[in-house]
Amino acid sequence: MDAIEAIKKRRTIRRFLQDPIPFNDLKDLIDAARLAPSGGNLQPCEFMVIDDANLLEGVFSTLAWAAYLGQEGKPKEGEKPVAYIVVLINKEKQTSTPYADVSAAIENILLSAFAKGIGTCWIGSVQKEKLTQFLNIPENYSIQYVVALGYPAEKAVVEEEHGSLKYWRDEKGVHHVPKRRIDDILHHNKIRNF
Ligand SMILES: Cc1cc2nc3c(=O)[nH]c(=O)nc-3n(C[C@H](O)[C@H](O)[C@H](O)COP(=O)(O)O)c2cc1C
């Protein structure tokens, strides 16, 4: 799979098969994150991989899912993630671009996972204090995001927006993700409509 294909076909997944992900594959995702662009090449990001069955439920309890779908968006028993990557900033590594660095690293994780057939959900709705305590994360680290992982147990498709950017599920359970049209976001040499 080439990079463009992965970018176009990757979609957020929130229902997962319960097969474990080999640790070496998870490690490959961190390797992809490690190689992401970084402001000043200062590389403040570190990554905690959680795949111990005893820890999964504790992490899950700190996360919120698919706000537009209400309870329907939350993975049920038997479809919860089988691993997580907790994305951290090491506060001892000076940087003026922490959020850009984190985001570039996460996108590498999502695309590399997709290329391996692994589904992902980038999660910002994290109870960070609770998760910090649960995972005994020391003070010199701050949790930025969590990436939930597992082999996909749902189909998600992209579509052009029709007046709303809210993702939705059809009667067959297919997840639809509206994206803005290219002609609405591309300004060629001058800003349109001005
Ligand atoms: C910064 C950020 C935070 C997000 N937080 C959440 C979240 O807390 N819970 C969730 O279910 N999805 C979350 N998502 C996933 C988005 O809902 C998803 O990317 C969006 O609906 C577009 O779908 P796509 O990833 O398939 O293109 C987040 C995505 C980003 C980039």
UniProtKB/TrEMBL annotation:
Enzyme Commission number, as recorded? 1.6.99.3
Please give the start and end residues of each transmembrane region: none
So which domain of life are we looking at? Answer: Bacteria
> Keywords on this record?
Oxidoreductase
GO MF annotations for this entry?
A: oxidoreductase activity
Boundaries of each Nitroreductase domain copy? 7-151
Q: What is this protein called?
A: NADH dehydrogenase
Q: Please tell me whether the keyword Oxidoreductase is annotated for this protein.
A: yes
Similarity comment text for this entry = Belongs to the nitroreductase family.
